[in-house]
Amino acid sequence: AGGGHTGPGDKYEPAGVVHRREFVHTAEEMDQPGRLSFHTDLWRGMTVDEAYYRHKLRGYDRGGPVGDR
């Protein structure tokens, strides 16, 4: 198997087998904005540092959101 996202469904609905040396994220973790694309980048060969930099919230000085808080 190539791995990847199991698709939508109930969090308690079985979606496959986990083999040794694999890990699973909870449904709540995967619901966090950007989580799936972050892990897709890792799966495609980016380093953790590269994926983190690509997905971290940018500050105002680098084009990030502007608000009153």
Topology, pairings included?
Blueprint: H1 27-30, H2 35-43, H3 48-55
Helix pairs in contact: 2-3
Key structural traits:
69 residues; mainly alpha; 30% helix; flat
What is the succession of H and E elements?
Answer: HHH
Counting DSSP H or I runs of 4 or more residues, the number of helices is: 3
Low-confidence stretches: none
Find the structural class using helix and strand composition: mainly alpha
Termini separation comes to 46 Å
Coarse morphology:
flat
Structural account:
- This protein is mostly helical and 69 residues long.
- It has a domain at 27-59.
- Helix content is 30%, strand content 0%.
- The chain has helices spanning 27-30, 35-43, 48-55.
- Helix 2 (35-43) packs antiparallel against helix 3 (48-55).
- It is flat.
- The N and C termini lie far apart (46 Å).
- The model has no long low-confidence stretch (mean pLDDT 79).
